[in-house]
Amino acid sequence: MLKVDELRVSVGGKAILQGLSLEIRPGEIHAMMGPNGSGKSTLAHVLAGRAGYEVTGGSVTYQGHDLLAMEPEERAWAGLFLGFQYPVEIPGVNNVYLLKAALNAGRKHRGEPEMDSISFLKLVREKAALMQIDDSFLSRGVNEGFSGGEKKRNEILQMTLLEPKLAVLDETDSGLDIDALKVVANGVNSMRSADRSFLLITHYQRLLDYIQPDYVHVLAEGRIVRTGDKQLATQLEADGYDGILAEAASL
Amino acid sequence: MNTAGLEKVWRDRPADWLQPAREKGMADFLDTGFPDRRSEAWKYTDAEPLADRSQAYLKTTPVALDSAQLPTESGDSLPILFVNGRLAPGQMLPAAPGLQVASLNEAPSERQAQILSRLASFPGRPREDLSALNAAFISDGLWIELAPDTVLEKPIEILFSSDGAQAAAQPRIIVSVGADSQCKLIEHYSGSGAGLVNAVTDIHCDHDARLEWLKLQLESTDSLHVALQNLSLGRNSRARLVQIELGSQLSRNDLQANLAAPGAHVDVYGLFLADGQAHMDSRLEIQHQAPNTTSQESYRGIAAGQGRGIFNGKIIVQPGADGTDAKLSNRNLLLSSTAEIDTKPELEIYADDVKCAHGATTGQLDETALFYLRSRGVDAAQARAMLVRAFAADIVTQIPLERLRQQVETELSARLARDMETDTP
Ligand SMILES: Nc1ncnc2c1ncn2[C@@H]1O[C@H](COP(=O)(O)OP(=O)(O)O)[C@@H](O)[C@H]1O
Ligand SMILES: [Mg+2]
What we know:
The structure holds 2 protein chains of 2 kinds. Chain A is of the alpha/beta class. In chain A, about 40% of the residues lie in helices and about 30% in strands. Chain A is built from 8 helices and 12 strands. In chain A, a hairpin with a 2-residue loop joins strand 11 and strand 12. The model of chain A has no long low-confidence stretch (mean pLDDT about 90). Chain B has a domain of about 260 residues. The two termini of chain B are about 40 Å apart. Chain B has 8 helices and 20 strands. In chain B, the strands form 2 sheets. A 10-stranded mixed sheet of chain B has the order 2-1-5-8-10-12-14-16-18-20, with helices on one face. In chain B, about 50% of the residues are buried. In chain B, helix 7 packs antiparallel against helix 8. Classes of the chains: A alpha/beta, B alpha/beta. The complex binds adenosine-5'-diphosphate and magnesium ion. The site of adenosine-5'-diphosphate has 12 residues of chain A, from helix 1.
């Protein structure tokens, strides 16, 4: 599904990702953990095609295509989804309007018929109920005046609606109370399937109590320094990043 | 600029009952001629095309209008049609209890003194606006009077249409809203061809009156459009004005609002889109002349292509106007590297104990928001158009009539779709 090979990325001349390699196969859930500033969001943004990042080496292949050559919207049409660490507030662009435009843009590019308004609204209401998002939020501006937790649930709502092949969720768990965390985890778990993959970027292992990852990676200074299973996250929680990083350095 | 040609044309006209107003207008106009760039008020806008077209068009005798398609009352407004600045013949003017509407060219004799006195006292500024020229060459107009304690539910919608003829429309609209009365007025400019409009609208609101006023300018990209809106507000009267300027190759709009008595309030919302080669010049002057008057001005400009926008907003608090509360905000959006907007918000305060704020920003589309939309699968051009419409939405949603709100949204979408195609940065 996704193959990142020796990826090197700089921002403003500063090297952030320094030879990152990662392979995600269909159906897998990968957790990417790492201290603040280690480059997690940089990876997420580069995968989604945000401008301002300079790829200085390596490659990213997604479903056989050179991902880095695609426009952000082309990546979305091809089934890539980014859940933002800081979802953007866009007053004046209606939430439902965006959802419908996004859903139909994807359908159009996959050669599927566009969804009519009535079926669409029914679908959105269903998904919103699942995410415990009140209908009134749907008619507001995109993320406008939403609390931190509401923004994150809105990201997952978009994901459940767009049904991506690969979802990259950047710290979707940060700033959530335990109830919201469960709602978000439910949203992700309800989407799990043999042909859908997830890259869960997180700072804490707490999320992994609710979503079982197949792999856990530790990112430090722009590279994956450890890969393991769920146990690695538990160890991180106990020893902190310092312990793991010292151990990795001594190897 | 040579005005001798215009003077001759003016002298050769047959005199009518408006002659005293025309004479004063012509005298004032000849005093100064067309404004030039040395005047601060015309620093960014070249009046020469206006002068050239005025000279060329005012010479020609107006064409017959009998083929005009008269509006039918659409249900949501009381329409009145002007073609090339003249009332289309054969239409019934709106009638309602407490409402008087008369055409200027055929004003009943008992109204004439009243109209002449309003024309004589009109606070035009020969060096800054073209109201003197308008007075000299009034092509037609309306006298609209709402008696005290009258509530007019439907808006009066004045349709100013240009039919493509080389005509200089010089309409003059005079409105009096009586004490405790309420009404809505729409000036709706549209049409085809290389027309010229020099319009003056003068509205007085008596005490405790309520006015909603929309100016919608959707003229063709070949037309030249100049308008002066004058508003005078009596004690505790309230007005809400929405200006939408989307048409013309050169558009110059002046608003002078006078909060003349205590407790008067005005809200002004404005939007212009200067795309292609368009030049849009919008000026507001809000005069707080009495204590405890309040105003709020919110103006947005969008420039794309080679478009050029100018916003000049001035709040003046006169001596004695204590307790004034005024807020002026201007936000501008540049959609191409060749577009330009100049903005100048100003405050002049000669009273104590006032609350005044003003601010202006000019920027580009938010890259973060653009990326967010694209990451959801919205293509770049559509995402840009969405953000521009969102920028305009705060003003467009103020349009008091659903039909016109939709018309503006449709026009904006179509124009932005085109602008986004040609302007990909
Ligand atoms: N736009 C930017 N300009 C300059 N430095 C940046 C920018 N974005 C990120 N960085 C830097 O890159 C490093 C990695 O940031 P980020 O990917 O956000 O880390 P994480 O998500 O793991 O906290 C940090 O040192 C951060 O300061
Ligand atoms: Mg981050």
